[in-house]
Records
---
Amino acid sequence: MKEKHMKKTIKGIAAPLSLANVDTDVIMPKRFLITITREGLADGTFADLRFNNSGQKRPEFILNKSPWANAKILIVGDNFGCGSSREHAVWGMRQLGIKACIGTGFAGIFYDNARKNGLALPIVSHEIRDKLLQFAKNANSPEVSIEIDTQTITAGEISAPFEMDEATRTSLIQGRDDTLDTLKYASAIHDFESSLSDQMRVSVIK
Amino acid sequence: MTKTLYDKLVDAHKVCDLPDGDMLIYVDFHIMNEYTSPQAFSGMESKGLKVWRPEAHLTVVDHVNATRSVEAPDAQSKLLIDNLENNSIKHGIAFYGLGDPRQGIEHVIVPEQGLVVPGMLIACGDSHTTTYGAFGALGFGIGTSEVEHVLATQTLRYKRMKAMRVTIQGSTTLGVTAKDIIMKVVQVVGAGGANGFAVEFAGSAIRDLDMAGRMTICNMAVELGARAALIAVDEITQAALKGHSHSDQFAFKGESWVSDPKAVFDKEFTISGAAIEPLITWGTSPDQSISITANVPSALDYVSPKAKMALERSLQYMGLTEGQPAQSIKIDTAFIGSCTNSRIEDLREAAKILEGRQVAEGVEAIVVPGSALTRIRAEAEGLRGIFETAGFEWRPEAGCSMCLAMNDDIAMDGERVASSTNRNFEGRQGRGARTHLMSPAMVAAAAVTGHLVDVRDFR
């Protein structure tokens, strides 16, 4: 599961998840956070929504129903990904096979975490999001296509533009490692540091 | 050109522009905990990279450790705690672990140690890093990939936020605390209302707050989506910088760390301080709150079918009925702790309510001081005696504990908690656990009566 390279088009079954304020505690409950790796988080993703207390699948939950069990795209409610900074939420969603969430706006840390892991988060108007929710819920084959470079979403009769900032789009398309890329600017960082007075250089007492 | 405090902070830390529209900003100080940093260290190592500036980082154990005893942690938490210590030693980073008198919740110990001063930029793999805005510092939470980025480059790729100002006019009334002010702001602006914004808090009700109150405000600003929270530096801030182990080591001069008088904000909210009452949350999002004198909402209060559905879902999870008076909500557990409300000032407020009173029968009441230093100070002031005499369990170790239940303080399915914490999400304090957020004094009052109650009736 090292699928960092984003294709320019993401295509797949879209599942409607219309709840507002879905937080990262719900996306990845704390009992799955006791780990020092990024792996093995697919089962934990949306665990309390997908499974009941005895570990049985909840048949009423959208991702447990056909055809949405194979969803690659989620159409989500407002403020998806709010709360804790835990990147485990994004790792888990990717491991579950989710490649994009379409919403009206996302919590900031979640948005940045998504970019680092090739999870696309196209932002659309409330009107378009609601149309996509209806489409994902009712279409015979709720297949949605997201073209990253032209910033267009296509779903049946629906064709709509989406917002995505340039840096995120570039990062997704290139599958770039931001840390390595930033080190190309090492001399600029050194220059900045050398301009700092001694009282601006934090040194923590051990 | 006039500038907001936020713009001054961003400009002072900008290293360079990047071709894709982002900028690189310099991180003066970076804090790590045991659960969001392991994959950052391993990621950095797998790329053959080194820590750019080891002395600019601090690691601290707070999320997973048990707080009920000094005994060795269980095998699972030990895995994370040992991993943090090993990574710190290997990379030459300061480590404040269990048993260290400087240990405690990240956002409680950093000010205690004098590690935040106005003008600084602080990042941490924890969403409540907004706390440092109380000092006129730019603090914000980051994910693990960004923790790796800071370790290896001492910078972050950054996009300037829009600026919002929230003004609390006039004074608040007796019994209303900083927690009630910020809960009111979350209620008014909404849980995602400040997504994409850096929020500055202003107005006389904010100016009147001590540093603990200001930290509570900035801490919970992330619950309205703010990526940064700020309060202008004044004499109260300056006074708080003295007398800590790192005091006088750092000074970020060159700017006045306040917004210019005519600075323009992209969005403004104004709330009357006098109109704020002690609040409680009734639902599963921090913006689902009501005054303690009010009733739980009913479907009639909402127009849209979506809002009615959300209400129904929240009420079902919370085990409440429409229109039920807030004060009729009975509790099983009272919890005082967390990076929002576990400072010495919070413990004093709760102790005032508890002095000469008893926790109601059947209520389990727990207090977890935010840091080892806070605990020692509280014990010296006699607060421990007051809590214990009232029937509270006084925890000997500091940590996040039942705020997010990553240690063994897990609320059971259906258990109802009056909590001085910051999130009432489904499952936050345990699977099926029901959280009501409120001020520490309100938690103490609820512990005494066994149900949610107006703290003003206790004074």
---
Amino acid sequence: MPMTILIIIFYALKEKIAAFDIFLNGAKEGVEITFKIFPTLIGLFFAIGLLRSSGIIDLITKIISPVLNFIKFPSEIVPLALLRPISGSASMAVATDIIKQNGVDSFVGLVASVIMGSTETTLYTIAVYTSSVKIKNSRGIIVAALAADITGILVSILICKILF
Amino acid sequence: MLNLLWPIFIVVSIFYSILSGNIENVEKAITESTESAVTFTLTLIGMTCLWSGIMEIASNTRIINYLTKIFKPIVKFLFPEVKEEQKSFKNIIMNIIANVLGLGNAATPIGLQAMSELQKNNNEKNKLSDSMMMLIVLNTASLQVIPITVIAIRTSLGSVSPTKIIFPVWISTICAAVVGISLTKILIKVNK
């Protein structure tokens, strides 16, 4: 981060532009953007807080683990796979826990790390991006994004099986 | 989409917590979730303003010209609607770069600026345009070259080789991105 900032400011000095005035213009827009997405954040954090605290994720994990075991999907990874698209902080907490429980350099620990590194919080991203321009019709974009997530998770397991 | 998912999340969670006698936890989570949304927004507002400002400077220097040259073919392929002289073209390039560099805090504000620029040229204001769909999918794919956060966690947990995951992360990211982008191209054609 500091290096990126340094390079940008260096160019601003070199080209003698009014760096601080331009900075203020940009920063002002930042305030507007954040306030626009605040209601979305409250709504999402609330619903995801409920999901996590109710224990329903554990129940779903128990139900679908046998099915996923059939395709050699490690059951330790199931809660992470379920939470990853909906909550960044929750999936980070779960991933850290999985890595701690199974060992940071164990197979499961590596899979959890690769999943965290190669996927994003899809639902949050879609909600924030669409609500920032107040758009309701998202033309089924969630299907493409979730398919990408599932691909990412499956490939993470597969590549770890091949390499480690 | 969220009009469907959001109520389901709430009803199922509360219903299940009553059945499993877990209602106190849920009660606590309700207050905690609003608090954490506020804390998160406060952190976000600082970083968003800082990065919006820094990126505004960058887009006024010649850096943006160099980067445009490098990224033009990719952006042209993914966003055929967006013209090079439009402000959204710059925003999209900056957003991709912030994602690739792993500057998540910078990527979101620039991405949202790109959204509001794209909305100006959107014919149906209540519907995502083709370019908006592509931008969202790119931002749901984790494009960063070095997964810094995960490496930091692995280091803190005492891994013997915290960076061992970089190559598998690349493979996995590329596969996910290819699937996401292809499906979006299909959705754009099918869901007019």
